[in-house]
Write a structure and sequence with these properties.
2 copies of one chain form a homodimer. With 189 residues, chain A is mainly α. Helices cover 71% and strands 7% of the residues of chain A. Chain A binds a DNA duplex (28 and 28 nucleotides) through α2 and α3.
DNA sequence: TTGCGCATGTAACCAGTTACATGATTTC
DNA sequence: GAAATCATGTAACTGGTTACATGCGCAA
């Protein structure tokens, strides 16, 4: 199962949208401030090579155009299958940890294009449900941290607030999907 | 400058509070859900050894007590100097990126005990100032992402909301410090 | 002709993950 | 004497960081 990194999945997701060269991908990571991914060639190019070795992408040299030859990568059927399997994993408590919260967001970011809005909405609901059952245990832990210095307690508090902000986001996003679904229903009438 | 990892600084901060063994530290990381640190022996023990090689901590075997021999680590003067230097770095735009936001929180978490509440408060103000100048540029970037599918746009949106939540936290924390300062002033009257 | 922007790549290094090994003491 | 708990450690692997190398075409 653990046959790919987060960066690898990010690359698969982007290549599912359109064929891109390594340089294109680097530019995307460099210009999208949200991304937690490095745009360094030492990260991107080896990652693309690994994906190719595993048969998840295929790169072809595109001649004649522009300056130096570009190697343009496309996702393969096998790659798409792997990507979808990764996105389809159930959300478990462990995914909630901050270390892995970026992974959930990445899974969600490409959901519309791989599975459509119904699945994206279902993902959000699962996410919100899991989060809202996790937060109370965090709050409880925080309550036991009274003897700490103020800065330490506040730092812990910021962690909890991150989760609460994420939950608010999920609920707002659910509402956004529901509203859009209603609108498209009306249009069909 | 880059002579220590985040984990290394976390260890230094905890050892500044009190002497601890590797096992103690593992338990702390395992039981504190906020921490983004691994409690695996393969992370902790090598990290402690590195800190010791660099003269930042010193471990002494504590005999006779309990089961197996424990090696208890203490921070050295050199270690404390290094820790304080790390905490004292100015906050720059690059620190705002999510990849490094955990580092700022860690720096802050131990601020009361190393520098006292005035410096902690100053840190929060610097943090809030830097954040509030960063967020508009994120919002602007988000505004240009209209052609994206909904899930992608929402994922970006969640990134921005993380920053906004962090800013609200900083402002609340500033207020908490100011209130406490006022109370201690009154007590002195 | 040199310097810049596009574009791909590699090599050394390093830290964390996973899994395993081991040692000492208490409890059943 | 088996199992559980405390406690320390190591080895193989892996992927990201940093820095460097290279190649092509265009413009100054």
């Amino acid at each position: 199962m653990k046959d790919n990194t987060l960066l690898g999945y990010a690359l698969l997701g982007l290549l599912h949208q359109q064929p891109l060269s390594g340089y294109d991908l680097r530019k995307i990571f460099a210009s999208t401030p949200i991304g937690e991914f490095s745009d360094s060639p030492g990260a991107i190019y080896p990652a693309l090579r690994r994906l190719q070795e595993r048969g998840l992408v295929r790169g072809v040299v595109e001649e004649s155009k522009g300056l130096r030859k570009r190697r343009v990568f496309r996702i393969t059927p096998k790659g798409l299958t792997s990507f979808k399997a990764w996105q389809s994993q159930p959300i478990v408590r462990d995914d909630m940890m901050i270390r892995r919260s970026g992974e959930l967001l990445l899974r969600f970011a490409f959901m519309d294009q791989t599975f459509g809005p119904e699945r994206a909405l279902a993902f959000l609901r699962e996410f919100a449900r899991e989060l809202s059952s996790y937060i109370p245990s965090l709050r409880q832990h925080l309550a036991h941290a009274n003897e700490m210095p103020l800065s330490g307690r506040l730092a812990l508090e910021s962690g909890v607030q991150d989760y609460e902000a994420r939950l608010r986001w999920a609920r707002k996003s659910i509402a956004a999907y529901e509203q859009r679904n209603n609108e498209s229903k009306k249009e069909r009438l």
